[in-house]
Structure formats: structure tokens, C-alpha cells
Amino acid sequence: MTEVATLRPYACQHVFRSRAPSRSRHAHQCKALGAASTKPSKHYISMCTNKTCKKQGCQQVIQFAQDLALDELEIETCGCLGICGNGPNMIVDPPGMQLSHVSSPAKFVEVLDLICNIQVPDVFLKATELRLQGNAEARGGDLPAAERAYSKGIELELSTGKHTLHANRSGVRLTLGNAQGALEDAQAAVKLGPASFTTAYIRQVEALCALKRHQEAAETLDTIAQHDRAFSRSKDFKSLLKQVQAVA
Q: Above pLDDT 90, what percent of the chain?
């Protein structure tokens, strides 16, 4: 099998002292690559989100990892890991390894298989491809094509990750004038996604406003504020709040 990412093994203490100090507490798990004799209960991944790595695709990899919602995987963002021209770059602990060129969900899946011994079903990768296709169609202005791509992803038998597809289709349907369909998708996203997935609640507020169900929209905003205090102080939240208050 041809490796799709460049692997750079380090002693864990070196990597986490100089690259990702927030994970230094896990450095004792191995002193060098391959030191662990048993499969760890969790892998911690720190992925650079600096400007260059963003251009090279780190955001779609992070979204994919979050959609997986695996108990044995935790991903966080970090600052520059160096060798920017080889990005996106990440660190996986254990085994204490820096990887480069992890620029797509498909490459990340192979990293999980080769390094973490975690197998991701092909159907999940297919759903991600359809979500990215839908995103591209939406950015290009072909909203019906975007809706079809999201719908194909939703039709797949997925154990997790459908909430993002529903949320994306909700936004497209609302723009197309299908407020009821947008609301149904938003409600599905709320039901299927984690409480921290505030995008689902935002889509629900927007659809409820379009349907002139303003009291329910206000109640949903209260729910958002409870789940995400930081977002409740953002300009986007305040804009939604003004929109609801203006017609309440």
C-alpha cells in the first residue's frame, strides 16, 4: 500500500514539548515510536490550522474527524508545526508522530488505519465526499445540485455524521424557498448531532423565522445560548437575536 501521508517519527517527549504542549501529559505513554505494546484507549490528534495548512485542506479533515465522533479519538487544533510547505501537518499521540500532507478525509482515514489501528467504514467516507460535493455546488450557485448531493449522503446507512448533511441541506432548502423542508432538516440535525453543534439550532431559528413561528425561534435561541456561551456573545448570535426580537 502506498502511504498517502509523510510520517515523521519522534520521541514523544520531544514532539510534545516543542510542538503541542497541551498534550504533554500523554508523553509518558511512549518514549519512542512504537514503544506501546498494547492498543491505547484513545489517540489525541493536534492539527495545525495556520494559514498555509488551511489553504492545503486542514479544515475538511478536522470536520471529518469531528463527524466521526469516535470515543477513541480526540482532535484539537494547534499552532504551526513547521515544514509549512508539506501541510496540512498534525501530531498523533500515541505513538508520538508528526505527519504531513494529510490534506483530505481519505488520507486521514489511511492515517487512522496505519497509525491508530482504527478502521473507518467506506460508507462514511462516501458520505463525506457527497457533503463536500454539495458544499462545492452550493458555493458555485447550483443549489438544486447541492441539495441532491446532500440527499444522497443522507440516504446512506450511517451510524454517525448525518447531522452535518441535514444542517447543510437545511440551509440550501431555505435559500430555495422550502422553509418547511429546511425546518425538518434542522430538527433532524438537532436530534442527531451533539449538543455543541450549534449550526443545527441556527438553521432551526432561520427556518422558524421564515415560517413566522417567532416564539419558537426565540426559545431555540435560548437553547443555543445555554449550549454555547461563546457563540451567544458573537455578532452572528446578536444578529439572529435582533431578527427575532424585531418581529416577536
A: 46
144 and 97 part of one domain: no
The answer as to whether 226 is a domain residue is yes
Question: Is residue 203 over pLDDT 60?
Answer: yes
Band the pLDDT of 160: cuts 50, 70, 90: confident
pLDDT band for 65, please (50, 70, 90 cuts).
confident
Q: What is the pTM of this model?
A: 0.71
Q: Are residues 201 and 87 in the same domain?
A: no
Residue 1 lies in a domain: no
* Domain CATH number, residue 71: 3.40.30.10
The domain of 165 spans: 122-247
| pLDDT for res 38 | 58
Give CA–CA dist 78/47, Å, rounded: 6
